[in-house]
Design brief:
Structural class: alpha+beta
Oligomer: single chain
Number of strands: 16
Distance between the termini: 53 Å
CATH architecture: 2-Layer Sandwich
Helix content: 25-40%
Number of domains: 1
Low-confidence stretches: 1-14, 93-98, 100-128, 137-153, 341-346, 348-370
CATH class: Alpha Beta
Length: 424
């Protein structure tokens, strides 16, 4: 980046960048916002910030890239639209010169993505059920925002039809109900505190979905224990109960959220954490199968890459002394874009590694050839992470995080089972 161009970008950014919903958030309760195509941001939690600042080198490939801190304000435009605007922290202009802000929306171009009358994206083509339910909830006075979204808990697995017009990825962004839930909770919290506080620190992180046209995302809560060392007795009891009543206690992992594109029907399938908590071990396995199935066929070509990366991560974590990743999640991401069709009578080199569907007579004159698929495996959410290097922690653990490693091994074993059973 040239000095002149860098200065121009910082000036553009210093005017304030409108933060938009990050539509590929499928789990968690902390609000994640889109800064630009390649960067997201979330409220700064000191412990998580410290983790990223002191991250062991060998773990960096398994976590999002940390890109700094911004100041975020809660504002209203002249039409009463509620907006979150990011500004550089004092003295941080040099750091921000390295960020690609070319697609950021400046404050002067505020989008009406959070109108306070509807709390929905303007012109968003959302299902009639969403709109009808939201309007009904809006009429109820003195209800907490969590109660306004009680229907989400009742609709734990949702299917939304993606419009056939235009590119699939261009139609993808207005359909994720969980991201909207987290957004509206964050706006409500900041609105309630606006009179007392209107400057918040957010950390900037790599957008792990940016390289995928149609990201399929699986959010897994890892480990046999979820509460941090500093949790209150009430919080501790609540987290222990959730683990005992889910697959966390049995296999050290549970589904926290899922987003899968169904190529067979042109729909998006969402599974939330409430459904994930109810799954048995067999149900967990079936959910994993569903994550790797696009409605037409199983994405078998993904298995080896996922298993390899999970095994490598397990090896890295086994060497981490004193770390405990309580309530941390693991993301598995791949592109749901449908594979290219190739003619059966094509050049032999073009038909290497044809999936089993190609041998089926029903495949006709065409067969699916797996393209070079990339799968990402990353750890996220470190608000309750502890380590002996965090000097202020009263509890110091020794050795590896056995609960997390236990969950990883079981996850690897289950994916291998799905792979082996599907090839029989």
């Amino acid at each position: 980046m040239s000095p002149a161009f860098g200065a121009m970008e910082v000036e553009h950014y210093s005017k304030g960048v409108l933060l938009e919903p990050f539509v590929h958030q499928v789990g968690g309760h902390s609000c994640v916002l889109r800064f630009n195509d390649k960067t997201i941001c979330k409220p700064l939690i000191q412990r998580e910030h410290q983790f990223y600042e002191t991250l062991p080198t060998e773990m960096r490939k398994f976590t999002p890239q940390y890109e700094g801190v911004v100041s975020v304000s809660f504002e209203e435009d002249e039409d009463g639209n509620l907006c979150l605007i990011a500004y550089p922290l004092n003295g941080d202009h040099d750091k921000l010169e390295n960020l690609d802000n070319s697609d950021c929306e400046p404050k002067s171009k505020l989008l009406r993505w959070a109108n306070k009358k509807t709390m929905l994206l303007e012109n968003e083509k959302i299902s009639k059920e969403w709109v009808r339910q939201h309007r009904k909830e809006e009429k109820m006075k003195n209800h907490k925002l969590e109660e306004e979204f009680e229907w989400l808990k009742k609709s734990e697995v949702l299917y939304y039809t993606v419009e056939k017009k235009g590119n699939v990825s261009s139609q993808f962004k207005h359909h994720n109900p969980w991201s909207m839930k987290c957004h509206q909770q964050q706006l409500q919290r900041m609105k309630e505190n606006a009179k007392h506080r209107n400057q918040y620190k957010f950390i900037l992180l790599e957008n792990l979905t940016s390289r995928y046209e149609v990201p399929c995302v699986l959010d897994l809560k890892m480990g046999t224990r979820q509460h941090g060392d500093d949790a209150s007795e009430e919080k501790k009891a609540n987290q222990i109960r959730k683990c005992q009543q889910s697959t966390s206690a049995v296999i050290g992992v549970r589904v926290c959220g899922m987003q899968v594109y169904q190529a067979g029907t042109g729909q998006l399938m969402f599974m939330n954490k409430y459904h994930g908590r109810k799954l048995s071990v067999q149900g967990f396995k079936e959910a994993l199968y569903q994550f790797f199935h696009n409605g037409k066929y199983l994405r078998r070509e993904l298995f080896e890459s996922v298993i390899k990366k999970l095994t490598e991560l397990k090896s890295v974590l086994e060497k981490q002394e004193s770390y405990r990743f309580y309530s941390s999640s693991l993301l598995i991401i791949y592109d749901g874009k449908e594979r290219q069709e190739v003619a059966v009578d094509s050049d032999p080199e073009d038909l290497e590694d044809l999936s089993e569907e190609s041998s089926d007579e029903s495949a006709g004159a065409y067969a699916y050839k797996p393209t070079a698929s990339t799968v990402d495996v990353r750890m996220i959410d470190f608000a309750h992470t502890t380590c002996k290097y965090y000097g202020e922690d009263s509890v110091v653990h020794e050795g590896q995080d056995t609960g997390y490693v236990f969950g990883l091994q079981n996850l690897i074993d289950i994916i291998k089972e799905i792979r082996d059973e599907s090839s029989e």
